[in-house]
């Protein structure tokens, strides 16, 4: 198998990782969202006002690097710490979910689109996601209302809330990762 890029990648196992607490992690990848939605001249109002009201950290100087400009490449970059220049299925990267799994976290991934698209499901399985939900899984669960890509975000978030409550009740540390599809 191919080795990770030596340009930017530093294997996490070469650094000491210590678990100070078992806080849960919720990651939300928001497809096609951008700061222009705040432009009142374009939209008549700030469409992100509710997000702006959340007590959070904003990365104003974040710049997108080459090799990170499409969904799976951006996910790979944020999960694995490098840009996508080789196949993400034939490399030896240690990714966020691998580290979390090694620390006892239960990893769950939910999206509306098919997990087969860009082999997202294969990538997530390789990197120790324990449960995966995409278009086919939603169909198996009886959902019938889909857009061209898959399950609508409002339904996705309703299911994510249910899964979050289940995971929280379970008492085990978890990572719940969600990808929107119809922003």
Task: Describe the protein.
Helices cover 31% and strands 11% of the residues. The model has no long low-confidence stretch (mean pLDDT 86). The chain has helices at 40-43, 49-52, 71-80, 96-102, 120-126, 135-140, 153-170; strands at residues 25-29, 106-111, 131-133, 174-179. The chain has 183 residues and is of the alpha/beta class. A four-stranded parallel sheet has the order 1-4-2-3, sandwiched between helices. The protein contains seven helices and four strands.
Q: Quaternary status of these chains?
A: single chain
Give the proportion of residues in helices: 25-40%
Low-pLDDT sequence parts? none
Largest sheet: 4 strands, parallel
Beta-strand content: 5-15%
Kindly summarize this structure in a few lines:
This protein has 183 residues and is an alpha/beta fold.
Keywords:
alpha/beta, 7 helices, 183 residues, 4 strands, four-stranded parallel beta sheet
């Amino acid at each position: 198998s191919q080795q990770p890029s030596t340009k930017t990648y530093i294997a996490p196992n070469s650094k000491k990782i210590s678990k100070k607490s078992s806080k849960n992690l919720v990651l939300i990848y928001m497809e096609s969202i951008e700061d222009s939605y705040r432009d009142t001249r374009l939209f008549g109002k700030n469409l992100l006002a509710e997000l702006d009201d959340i007590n959070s950290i904003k990365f104003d100087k974040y710049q997108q690097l080459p090799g990170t400009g499409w969904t799976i490449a951006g996910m790979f970059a944020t999960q694995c710490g490098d840009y996508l220049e080789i196949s993400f299925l034939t490399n030896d990267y240690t990714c966020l979910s691998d580290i979390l799994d090694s620390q006892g976290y239960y990893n769950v991934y939910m999206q509306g689109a098919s997990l087969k698209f860009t082999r997202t499901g294969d990538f997530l399985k390789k990197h120790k996601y324990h449960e995966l939900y995409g278009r086919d899984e939603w169909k198996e669960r009886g959902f019938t209302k889909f857009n061209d890509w898959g399950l609508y975000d409002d339904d996705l978030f309703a299911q994510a809330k249910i899964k979050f409550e289940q995971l929280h009740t379970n008492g085990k540390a978890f990572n719940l990762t969600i990808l929107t599809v119809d922003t």
